[in-house]
Amino acid sequence: MKPRIHPESRPVVFRDRAADVAFLTRSTADSARTIQWEDGNTYPLIDVETSSASHPFSTGTSRVMDTAGRVQRFERRYGSSAATRRG
Q1: The pLDDT value given to residue 75
Q2: Is Ribosomal protein a UniProt keyword of this protein (predicted)?
């Protein structure tokens, strides 16, 4: 590995604004804002909108899309023969 070409990795606190959850991990991201963590140390703080704590896929609250309605709308607009010509 070449020296001095990779960014420095350091402990950083990411705070999920949607779920109000914070977690400490390593990252190359930097921030001027800091937070005092549970271990008494101060770390850079990065606010994120979505993490595994609030993302619908991870929490199991994902919505099921109405694909049947989309297909019917497509067939009304372009006719049912448009879908069979492609195949």
Answers
A1: 84
A2: yes
